[in-house]
Design brief:
Chain lengths: ~120, ~120
Amino acid sequence: AQTVTQSQPEMSVQEAETVTLSCTYDTSENNYYLFWYKQPPSRQMILVIRQEAYKQQNATENRFSVNFQKAAKSFSLKISDSQLGDTAMYFCAFMIPLAYSGAGSYQLTFGKGTKLSVIP
Amino acid sequence: DAGVTQSPTHLIKTRGQQVTLRCSPKSGHDTVSWYQQALGQGPQFIFQYYEEEERQRGNFPDRFSGHQFPNYSSELNVNALLLGDSALYLCASSSMPVARVGNEQFFGPGTRLTVL
């Protein structure tokens, strides 16, 4: 079974500063995907960034970047130039695609989340 | 383009009752997944529907059942409600195969179910 661990229940950062959220996972699979989702108080889960395990290059999306260490099974999220709108719960998630055909199926396994507060 | 929509927004039921939650996927999506998010926890996968069939199921009892309609919309049914079923129920849609770039899961705003 796959597990995702987020060891920081809560974090805070000053506006315009940089913060890193940690995530570790456990799997015996070699092909998988990792995601960071953001859930603001409005409850809508929004995809922040994704990483394919077969890619060595770390994914980046504007102010968001990841540090993917496959051997260590670590997948941290760095938020640069933090903004007040970044205040939210952040969930690390893991997915194994069971097949690449239309008959395949998959599921996301989430960590317990990190509550990030950006302080003005 | 409407995103994933869910109804109702909030629901209050009593123990032993049955409930039906509804989800309409994002336009162009054919796969619907349901998740249960207890307070202070990450979402837990319930099941996934594709081509009107349950394709994969998480560790949830048979009291949780679902359905997908020809228009790809989906329902989640929970029978014999327990206090522990109180949670935010999230629906996510995507298109097969998910492994392709861009085929991410888009989430709806959720239905908050309270069981008294």
